[in-house]
Write a structure and sequence with these properties.
By secondary structure, the protein is an alpha/beta fold. It is built from 4 helices and 15 strands. It has a single domain, classed as Purple Acid Phosphatase, chain A, domain 2 (4-Layer Sandwich). The protein starts with 6 loop residues before the first strand and ends with a helix.
């Protein structure tokens, strides 16, 4: 599929050239968990982020929204995690940029690095995906050929096993391609897309769910599995 031909999928994130994109870290989500030692929050995400920076030759990393989880409070552990992410990027010589999401109302309290509504990498625009971009000319609002977004935390159930997944569609948003990444935080349950129609998604970038093709990354097998669009594939799940 052309929409993902130049992308490399990796641990709930993706690589586009020298740019790493990850979304929906929801730092602080562990404070709402009943798990005694939450897996997926805090140190776990910093460690996984560092492993991705070590794995690839990168110049920048872009958080596509919802770096934070809470709308109203910033626990001390949240500041520690954000500082850990910033330090990890700095030590790797990677510029870390945040495009705020709907949960990031307290972002200024913990983050003083680069913040932009959307971030362009060539003809690709990275943003959280909770609101439509403003019109700036061209066939799409940003004149983009492709959008990389988060927001919905997609998962897919295959043979009874639920997995985080990416969703990719060609020309599905005003003629532009869309790639949706899963939540980077492993505590997020996510939404199961198997039977979802477009109106079940929160992101306005999803106009035709049947046109979206799931992509599942199996890190243990070092394998990326690309499936047909949901409209052709639902009956086989």
């Amino acid at each position: 599929m052309d929409a993902v031909a130049d992308l490399r999928f990796c641990d709930r994130a993706l690589r586009l050239g020298e740019t790493l994109v990850l979304a929906d870290l929801h730092v602080g989500r562990g404070a709402d968990s009943d798990v005694e030692i939450p897996v997926g929050d805090g140190a776990d995400m910093v460690e996984r982020f560092g492993a991705l920076l070590d794995r690839f030759d990168l110049e920048e990393a872009v958080v596509a929204g919802d770096l934070l989880h809470s709308f109203r409070t910033v626990p001390r552990t949240v500041q520690e995690t954000v500082d850990g992410l910033a330090r990890t990027a700095r030590e790797a010589g990677v510029r870390l940029v945040v495009t705020p999401g709907n949960h990031d109302t307290m972002l200024d309290a913990v983050w003083d690095g680069p913040t932009v509504d959307s971030y362009r990498v060539g003809d690709t625009v990275v943003c959280h995906g909770h609101v439509e971009p403003g019109a700036e000319g061209g066939d799409t609002p940003d004149g983009a050929d492709r959008y990389i977004v988060g927001h919905d935390h997609p998962t897919i159930a295959i043979e009874g096993q639920r997995r985080p997944c990416y969703l990719a569609g060609e020309g599905v948003y005003r003629g532009a391609d869309v790639v949706m990444v899963p939540g980077f935080n492993r505590l997020l349950q996510g939404v199961e897309v198997n039977g979802m129609a477009a109106d079940g998604f929160m992101s306005p970038f999803v106009c035709d769910a049947d046109a979206l093709a799931p992509v599942v990354r199996d890190e243990a097998a070092d394998e990326t599995l690309t499936f047909p669009p949901l409209g052709e594939f639902r009956h086989r799940l």
